[in-house]
Write a structure and sequence with these properties.
heterodimer; A: Rossmann fold; six-stranded mixed sheet; four-stranded antiparallel sheet; B: alpha+beta; 14 strands; 54% helix
Chain lengths: 227, 420
Amino acid sequence: MLEAHDVFKVYDTRGVETRALDGVSLEIEAGEFTALAGPSGSGKTTLLNLFGALDSATSGSIRLDGQELSELKPAELAHLRLHQLGFVFQAYNLIPVLTARENVEFVMELQGIPAAERRERSLAVLAEVGLADLEAKRPLEMSGGQQQRVAVARAIVTNPRLVLADEPTANLDSHTAERLLDLMEEMNREHGVTFLFSTHDPMVIEKARRVVRLRDGRIFADEARAA
Amino acid sequence: MPIEGALLGTVRGLLRPSTWRIALRNVARNTRRTAIVLTAITVGLSSMLLAMAINYGMIFQMIQTAIRTDLGHVQVHARGWSDQPGIEWTLSQTRTEAGLTPAPGKVLAAAPRVRGEGLVFSPRASVGVRVLGVDPVREAELSAVAASVTEGQYLGSEQRRVVVGERLAERLKVGVGDKVVVSVQDVLGDMTGEAFRIGGTFRTASRDIDEGVVFLRIGEGQALFGLEDAVTEWVLLAEADGDEEALREEVGARLGDEVEVSTWKELRPFLVQMMDMFKQTGWVLYAAIFIAMAFGIANVLLMAVMERIREIGILMAIGMAPGRVVASIVAESIVLTGLGVAGGVALGLFSIEALSGGIDLSRWSEGLVTWGIPPKIVPALPEGELWVPVGIATITALLASLWPAVRAVRIRPAEAVRHI
């Protein structure tokens, strides 16, 4: 499904070059629940961004279902993100001026789904993440955990093939983080949604069925676990 | 990003209700900043509208003064008069009147006149003047002079009476009842003169009329100039301003090639030039206000974009296409400008209405009267004039949003989502 082959990513900050990824090759299959683990600066978020078509590699190849991402134009990349991927970020994931339901609906509106269907699906998915009664709340009226659950609802409402989650539990207490992970695990198990996390949270690493460990921009361990 | 694709995406984005919903909520997000920008637009626009209305009020009143004291909307003269105006270009009063009967559509009043140059003498002074022989009853229907008499009486049945402006009376050092001599060169070129008494004095908003015209009865004017029953002009007043062109066509068709029919615009092109000049001045005012407004809006939107880098990055990450990002900024600009323009137009119209009783400029009346402007200015805005700032404001909003929109589109989602 997702392939990285000999990927390098070098950041140039005022003439100072930083090698974030140093020849990474990795394959992710459909249905995986995988964590990219490593300390800060190890390159896990960079790799996640490349897989999510949010950034481009300095060299190497990133393919999604055989499609080379570097060959796509910005509008085509936006189209790919809209129709095939879902994102959950560390925090402040939501549009503050929209309610929980509107945030979830918005991505469907971008897809051109009719209003009635948008409403039905957004309410269903909010109920699925346990937020049916908060649909009219705006992000600032919700806790961090509730906001992250809305972000998950938004990420899965379009039935994406792959959800990329960048440190989704970083700003949550352990209880809330566990509930969120359980929710994503359930989505993976019941709906077959592929999840790829970047994290250094032991709880996420523990729940992942595959853990790819990075250090200094290189993969140094790739462990598969029993479901 | 191909331009056509981005433009199409922007247009499609602007057609989405959610784009406007988000724009409205974003405008309401930072109330203090929005209030400052809206106040600037509202005050700027309303001040500009009021300034324009005062300008237009002045020029309209100037035109009205000229029409209602001298020109009328349309004048009829013998063909050739406009090449070298003079007493020798005459019309048969009865034949012209027959041609104008029944009165052309939309004519409020019509009056014959005898117009020539002359000198008026008093025991103490003499002044070069225009001598206007008028039919007192008909003239009163189209000229404001009859209603502007301040002392004595307007022309009536009494013989050998003249009416002059207060300023002319002052120069001649005469008053009502005093005797003056009006001397002219008649149609044969001979000098001739008659003695008259001052029957009344008047004051209008025109220094030209107040200081340089002697009004007398048309029969006495004809006798003075040796014209028998001929007149030099017919003056017509239309029912409404703006009808003069149609009236000219109709009168011209009725009276044929022997006459030339002119509108007040042709008789006094200076007034048309003044109106054009006011319009040009208006464009300068519009430009100044809207350039300032454009920078204000661009500044606010740019700040909003910089504040929302992460938010825009997330929107792009979840699949919002560049054109839609541009649409969201453009929509916010239009909402902001729309509210400001609505406020500005409302406040401007309210101010104009509040001053509809007139602005008293009598302190400067000595200067204003030279231009035919009355000392009380009533602001007036032509209907079409209101759409000009609205149209320009919309264009300004679009232009002002381009810079912030380009900044927003250039945001790289991978960096933006990490932005704090």
